[in-house]
Design goal:
By secondary structure, the protein is an alpha/beta fold. The protein has 14 helices and 12 strands. The protein has a 5-stranded mixed sheet with strand order 2-8-7-6-5, with helices on both faces. Strand 3, helix 6 and strand 4 form a beta-alpha-beta unit. Helix 5 packs across helix 10, helix 7 packs parallel to helix 8 and helix 13 crosses helix 14. It is globular and about 60 Å long. The mean pLDDT is about 95. The structure holds pyridoxal-5'-phosphate. The site of pyridoxal-5'-phosphate (PLP) has 13 residues, from helix 5.
């Protein structure tokens, strides 16, 4: 222990190590010691093939290898290169671009978009609303800039989207704050795999159009990190035009990420894309978000911006990328189905699952169950309300074996 504590906590509670990376490194150590066939490492949030190697789209990789130094060595403008801004709007909305005023600002991944929207659309000390099951870094991102997270119950007893609790929490917070940022991670939510249905979206837009929001500044953030791994690309974008119904004081912001969709995780590229009712609100979005980027990371890396621009500038290439991704998406969907089918047979309850990288299992004592599974060579992530299984990182065969192992560990812990 040092005599000094130099770093300032500033209200944050900073752990010794990131929980997920900690578990993951123990899994890797066991693989090195006992062999890969003895270990199920279902902790990783990237898509891996059945042999545990990172899936990289070869069509995207080819574009990467053909770049010239100016494509990656140079600075990009703060808000992104113009061709990227155009391409990323097409990538996000597909054939379902809503009416309204749309602007895109480049960010370092979806994470950058989340950080920037929270910092610019909420006030110091505000609470940001999201579902009780949620990606833990929302808390970190909010906490870093003096905000915190409040949650609504994601599901009813019947396993449906809990619009009543959503409404209650929206109204409570609007009663206390002048501004409200709401984050909905859909489709293929992390950690549950739930996708809001079109009916769920009807409720959300109706609630946010209610009189409770009149006079307040509301930002509805759609964290779309997994949008291309939920199923048919166009089908899963059909909700976008519903955003047109939102009133002038509610701006929609898509937190778009190239990490999963283009397997460009490490290039740190994404965008925040607004759908605003009026042009001044859209222009305000662009100006404020670019200003804020300058003061946090300056410009975003150019490389993936150029890659996306090339892909969207060449119809044949775009088709090739989409088809290659669809093959891997089907592999992922088969894994999710295998897990939920076997969970049904084993009597293991899961949180409502539709698609995506993760399935969650409700569990009263997640830390104890995951610790006992670790001894058996099974690594999953304990969350506040249950266990998160990454079907993205294990084979279909392991997805079939896992539910019975989890059920056994849960029963033994009772
Ligand atoms: N949102 C969710 C729910 C995620 O799981 C992730 C990545 O794991 C992101 C956003 C952002 O990812 P990135 O910053 O790599 O784009």
């Amino acid at each position: 222990m040092s005599k000094y504590i130099l770093a300032r906590e500033n209200g944050r509670s900073i752990p010794q190590e990131d929980k997920i990376f900690g578990i993951s490194s123990r899994a890797k150590a066991m693989i090195a010691q006992k062999g890969a066939d003895k270990v199920i490492n279902a902790t990783i949030g990237s898509l891996l093939d059945d042999e545990g190697r990172l899936v990289v789209l070869s069509s995207v990789d080819r574009v990467f290898k053909e770049l010239s130094p100016a494509d990656y060595a140079d600075y990009a403008p703060i808000g992104g290169i113009p061709s990227f801004r155009e391409a990323v709007i097409k990538a996000a909305f597909g054939k379902h671009q809503p009416g309204g005023f749309i602007r895109a600002v480049a960010t370092p991944g979806g994470t950058g978009a989340l950080r920037n929207v929270i910092s610019n659309y909420s006030e110091d000390g505000d609470k940001v609303l999201t579902s009780d099951w949620h990606w833990a870094p929302y808390n970190t991102i909010a906490g870093e800039i003096g905000r915190s997270v409040e949650t609504f119950e994601f599901f009813t007893e019947e396993g449906k989207f809990n619009s009543a609790d959503f409404k209650k929490k929206v109204n409570e917070l609007l009663g206390k704050q002048e501004s409200l940022v709401i984050i909905l991670n859909t489709p293929a939510h992390n950690p549950t795999g739930y996708s809001l249905t079109l009916e769920d979206w009807d409720s959300v837009t109706e609630i946010l159009g209610d009189e409770a929001s009149v006079g307040k500044a509301v930002a509805l953030v759609i964290d779309a990190a997994y949008i291309d791994f939920a199923g048919d690309e166009e089908e899963y974008r059909r909700f976008f035009p519903k955003l047109e119904r939102l009133p002038e004081n509610v701006i929609s912001v898509i937190a778009y990420s190239l990490s999963k969709t283009f397997t460009l995780y490490g290039t740190r590229c994404g965008a925040m894309i607004c759908v605003a009712k009026t042009e001044p609100i859209a222009e305000e979005f662009r100006r404020v978000c670019e200003y804020s980027s300058r003061g946090s990371w300056s410009n975003s890396a150019k490389v993936a911006q150029v890659i996306l621009s090339r892909i969207y500038g060449d119809e044949k290439l775009l088709k090739e990328v989409d088809e290659e991704r669809a093959g891997y998406r089907d592999m992922l969907l088969r894994r999710g189905r295998a897990f939920t089918e076997e969970a049904g047979k084993a009597g293991l309850k899961t949180v409502p699952f539709d698609a995506g990288f993760f399935v969650s299992v409700p569990c009263p004592d997640p830390d104890a169950v995951s610790a006992s599974l670790e001894k058996e060579g099974v690594f999953i992530v304990p969350l506040a309300k249950g266990l998160r299984v990454s079907v993205a990182s294990i084979s279909e065969e392991k997805c079939r074996r896992l539910p019975a192992l989890i059920k056994k560990a849960m029963d033994e812990g009772k």
